[in-house]
# Entry
Amino acid sequence: MSQTIEVASALPSASALTTPFVQTLVRLIRAQDSYGAWEGKPDAELVEPFIVTKEQRRQMPIMADPDPDVLARLELFYNAVSLSIERETGLVASPMMKMHHEGFGRVLLTTGKLVVLSRHLRDVHRFGFESVEKLASEGDKLTKNAVETINTYPEVAKA
# Structure
């Protein structure tokens, strides 16, 4: 029995779409468009798959294997965080992600010899944010925390 999950229809605010983090994410999405299929699409449409409302989350099963598209979005999100860190500090942040096929795993971001972000992931099949504003906020928060860690231990980050 398959369930149809409705797509979020709430339009994001223009200010959320213009945040540096969301713009970095949009650039990453567009960079993967080797055939130009997304060339004329607005930014809001490109980030729409990252939006998962509470109602959509309720319709998803409690346990499920993550879809390859969800894993790709998860990877794009943390790659955008990495690029945002690089934009802020001038240092390359390398993402490493290890996922179990059942939807749990870990993501690390390293700069030099310093781990600037370490997160355990679970219920990855439900990955998403309630709004573009929350997407931007979470990306900015992760970037800010990583930059603070780099500023605390600059010699390790540059090693």
Summary: The first strand starts at residue 94 and ends at 99. The chain is about 45% helix and 15% strand.
